[in-house]
Design a protein that fits this description.
mainly beta; RNA Polymerase Alpha Subunit, Chain A, domain 2; four-stranded mixed beta sheet
Length: 209
């Protein structure tokens, strides 16, 4: 389990948070159900490394300068609209013996067969809300799409979940679709027109008068 050192701080105004960011920290909070949230700051680079090593859904050990530790998961990272630079991180405190609910990324795998056939692939749902013990929740939910064909749809109900994990997302929510590739042709005006690819059909026979 990755340990992150955090600074416990009083709630700050905008200028105070901006100062923390200039010093390499990311303002944040630890929320606990039924309690007031705790304002913290974490080194931005440490958080980035933790996510790279363990994923967004991993359980982290947050430890303050007094030695108090919290088990927590990342609930949300707020970013700047234009630069996408992180502005604030929300940690959700968890207890290892109690079920929790969190969003986990859906990751398609084995896409090569679709690419070989040059099929159009669309992902409609990026995350799945799952429930389980923190130690049982996966970092990502991998879904093998290698057997999907043109015209196939994959729904939440089709996703195999790990043992001891459930979801409260509706089973009929669309996750992936696969369709025939689109062919681009040039119109008389020189503009590109987009039409679905179709199977070749025999040319019509010439009629004689």
């Amino acid at each position: 389990m990755t340990t992150l050192k955090v600074l416990i701080k009083e709630s700050m105004n905008k200028s105070g948070n901006n100062r923390l960011r200039r010093e390499g920290y990311l303002p944040g909070s630890i929320s606990t159900k039924g309690e007031e949230s705790v304002s913290v700051a974490v080194r931005r680079d440490d958080l980035r490394r933790a996510i790279a090593d363990s994923g967004m859904s991993a359980v982290l050990k947050l430890e303050d300068d007094k030695g108090t530790a919290y088990h927590a998961m990342i609930g949300d990272i707020q970013t700047a609209p234009l630069t996408q630079a992180p502005l604030h991180v929300d940690f959700k405190r968890v207890f290892m013996t109690e079920e929790t609910r969190i969003n986990v990324a859906i990751q398609p795998t084995n896409r090569e067969p679709l690419d070989i056939e040059r099929l159009e692939f669309l992902q409609h749902l990026d995350q799945l809300s799952v429930r389980g013990l923190p130690g049982d929740i996966p970092n990502v939910i991998e879904v093998d799409i290698g057997n999907m064909k043109a015209g196939d749809n994959l729904y939440v109900a089709d996703i195999p979940l790990p043992d001891k994990i459930s979801t409260d997302t509706e089973g009929d929510r669309l996750v992936f679709t696969v369709s025939m590739p689109r062919v681009y042709t040039e119109t008389e005006t020189g503009e590109a027109a987009e039409t679905p690819a179709a199977e070749e059909t025999p040319a019509a026979e010439d009629t004689q008068e």
